[in-house]
Write a structure and sequence with these properties.
mainly alpha; 4 helices; 83% helix; elongated
Length: 145
């Protein structure tokens, strides 16, 4: 059951906007850094860094838009919207990593293992961070009521 849609005060809306923009900046910068790392790690196996960068930046833009909406929807108990945004965020997260496997020639097993470990680690860190933000936001909302 979802809570009724309640308007937020101007300060809360401004804070949410600022945090969403900060998140957008972080994911775009991380996208650039990650492209350099991926290019260095698997560039010799046929990965086109420009295609990867395009995919990763596009995914970062989608993630910058969807992840804050997912978190805020969970905080506001709008679960149906939150699940929609979570699904889109997950797809945006996976697309660049899929290109590593689809856009390269045969990768050695050790590189496949390392890439999969990094994907798993970053996904785990991301989920933990999102859960923490949701819990913190719910606590702040509860205290404000």
């Amino acid at each position: 059951m979802t809570a009724e849609l309640q308007p937020h005060d101007a300060e809360t809306l401004q804070r949410r906007k600022r945090l969403s923009r900060t998140w957008a900046g972080i994911v775009v910068v991380w996208s650039l850094i990650r492209t350099v790392i991926v290019w260095a790690a698997v560039g010799d196996y046929g990965l086109n860094p420009w295609i990867y960068l395009s995919l990763d930046l596009s995914s970062a833009i989608v993630d910058a838009f969807t992840t804050p909406r997912m978190v805020l929807s969970f905080i506001d108990d709008h679960f149906k919207q939150a699940i929609k945004w979570a699904f889109i965020s997950l797809v945006a997260f996976i697309v660049p990593d899929l290109y590593i496997f689809l856009g390269t020639r045969t990768l050695p097993t050790r590189i496949i293992v390392v890439v999969c470990l990094i994907i798993g680690l970053t996904l785990t860190i991301g989920v933990i961070g999102v859960v923490r933000r949701i819990r913190r936001g719910r606590n702040e909302r509860r205290l404000a009521q």
